[in-house]
Amino acid sequence: MRRLKLAATGSVVAIMLAACAGADPAESEKTFTAPEPALQGFYDQRIDWQSCSDNEGVLDVTDGKARDRKFECGSVQVPLDYEDPQGETIDLQVVQYAGARGVTPLVYNPGGPGGSAISSLPSMVDYVFTEDLLQRYGIVAVDPRGVGLSAPVQCLSDSEIDEVRSVTSEVTVESIRAESAELGQKCLDRSPDMAQHSDSMSAARDLDIVRAALGRDVLDYFGFSYGTFLGALYADNFPENVGRFVLDGAMDPAADVDAVSEGQAKGFEAAAEHWLEEASRAGRIPLPVDVDRAKADLRGWLDSLEDRPIPTSDPNRPLTKALATTALVSLLYDTDTYDLLSTGLTQAMRQFDGSMLLQIADLYADRRPDGSYATNSFDAFNVVNSLDYKEVGSEGEWVARAEQLRQDLPLLGGEFGLASAMIEAWPVESRDTRKPVSGAGAPPILVVGVTHDPATPYEWAQALAGQLESAHLLTVDGWKHCAYSRTAGDCVTSAVDQFLLDGELPADDLSCQLP
Predict the structure, then answer these.
(1) What pairing do the DSSP bridges indicate for beta strands 71-79 and 89-97?
(2) Which one of 248, 366, 379, 453 is the catalytic residue?
């Protein structure tokens, strides 16, 4: 079950289309897509913004920060099933941060699938979006269907998630099938509706109802990581309703589940080599300077945790191979966390204390010190991916591909194999939403790709930019998942902000460098 985490959440702590240059985002003149008659009632609603001070769910996931008067809460009603719009409905939780009245709403998604936009909103306005953007835009967080506070899908209890996260299972087609079928059935048993209707295409259609509920003719949108896939689906299905779109840390909508798994395996292996080279040469970790030897030693140490986990500050939760690997991968998203990884690894290897790595793994999974999980990211991630992807190839091809990954990527390749086996065994039929997009008729869309992004490889940004007819690719050189933040440097922030604020695309030959 742990390996069902195929595409990682965008970095939201420290981790769209233009009308004409100089035009205000609120004043675009376009021809808009009319809603289907059966959906007209959903499109006629408007968000009734209220103080978040009495919204316990929002206050809980934002650690009380949403009490600030600049945060406003609302909800949007959408059909549970777009094939039956007169049937059951669900409510999407929406939170807006508005620095000033009358600003244009900018909807964003932080990644995932399964990442809660609402829980990340305070960090986004404090560390990611620039002051210039906050003066012109109200930042709108919408938890997609099945995620966070929007009809959340529930599969496992907190203790069950703890168990799944801490155990490394045998990597065979049979074991993966069994795990996937068991988890999927628990999702169906505990959340029968959302286990079947939390797919990304429905979430993209929800965004158009959110646009209307915001009183907007066009949707201005910023998607990070998986959020770029939602944005690409929206642009492909509602091109006339696209405003200014930025898609950072892009995914390739046409990539199948095995291609995604392999791309991430290669990306994280390369990031691990980059970290090992820097850390070992500086003497920050107890591993050889030679990268190949360091990888072999680290792999051996991780494997040793299978039978001999290391104690932590919690006597009931030793550091297992699975937890240590989670911590390792989570700190490879950004060079800014390399030193933290080196410190945690050194503590574990030299002092036989896995406390720091356990804490890091828990933070990545949204686990609180009391053992509860702040969001349903684990469940939602698995459900959405299993609805979006379709298995590809034969069982023999799956096994051969997994073995090749283990050979080519000796440190982490074994963690990314047999993705198709997971999807095949899932008890809900896939919607198979992964296919090329074009967004024909949409205005310019800014796609941002980082050359050494471990979670969404640069090739995916190139692929998305090649598929979207109006896309403009901004290349950013660096080792980081997603480029944009206040600390990304003037080249990145100026290029993105100028597009969002004035509709001006970066120069064709512009390439940025992360600090």
Answers:
(1) antiparallel
(2) 453
